[in-house]
Amino acid sequence: MLRLTRTPVFEIAPDRPGGFVSLAAAYALNRGKKKSLQTLKLAVEKGLTDLASITNNEAFDSIRSEPQFQQLIQNLPKTK
Are the C-beta atoms of residues 37 and 66 closer than 8 Å to each other? Predict the structure, then answer.
């Protein structure tokens, strides 16, 4: 199990969503569905607007069918 108690993404860029997306992908790849979904939620709260960064990322295949994942996608701001 992947355990991160202190990670650079929180120290270097705590208000930028990209690092959270990368961390969520790492969790998803390591069978950490719950942590992945929680971290993706943080990315959205931090301002994630790039839908493609998660919908086109194969790392999220393991959680794509989860209701929480679908809800996160629906809650992303629509960009033109």
Answer: yes
Nearest to residue 49, comparing CAs of 76, 68, 25?
Answer: 76
| Residues 28, 18: Cα–Cα separation, whole Å | 15
d(CA 49, CA 24): 15
The pTM score is: 0.79
Provide mean pLDDT across the span 47-73.
92
Closest CA to 19 of 1, 52, 42: 42
Q: What distance in Å separates the CA atoms of residue 14 and residue 46, rounded to the nearest whole number?
A: 8
Phi, psi (degrees; rounded to nearest 5) at 32: -100, 65
